[in-house]
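Predict structure. Input: Streptomycin 6-kinase, 166 residues.
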Amino acid sequence: MKSYEIYSAIDPSVVHAMLDWFRDNDRNVYKTAVATLAQSRKLRPVFIQKKALPEQYAWILKTLQTKSAEAIGEHLMQAWLMAGNQELLAAFCDAMGIEHDGKGSVTGELPEELDAAKLDAAVDSLMERFDPKIVTVYLQFFNLQNSGGWGALSSKLESDERLKLA
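Output follows.
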């Protein structure tokens, strides 16, 4: 899946959590995202900023669901996952044996293949410890990091009912 396809299938509460996190922790990223998305739709950012927050969020989500917003959508989600969900990322990397900086940022090379048995155990553990919606989104975006995804992860995302986006 591409990022705009993920946003089309995602539970809006995940996007709201992401946007809330940016507004609370890195308002500049939020403002830049609104400005970039507004510009891509040939709108002035102030047009969006004047809307009530629920309307802003709805407009942002709708815009992130367009193919033209693919790059900004992927960047936003990655930034939120890397900064706001470090414990989840680190737990996944630990479970998969992927070298990271202790915060979930990969320090070495990503593996060419993911071990299916390790992946099953990792998903089970993550689903118990973290919000399943965020786990699902993370795994979807992690799979984007390898051209064509990883076979084991793609299969898991397609077959495991717990990992459905909506």
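The chain is about 70% helix and 0% strand.
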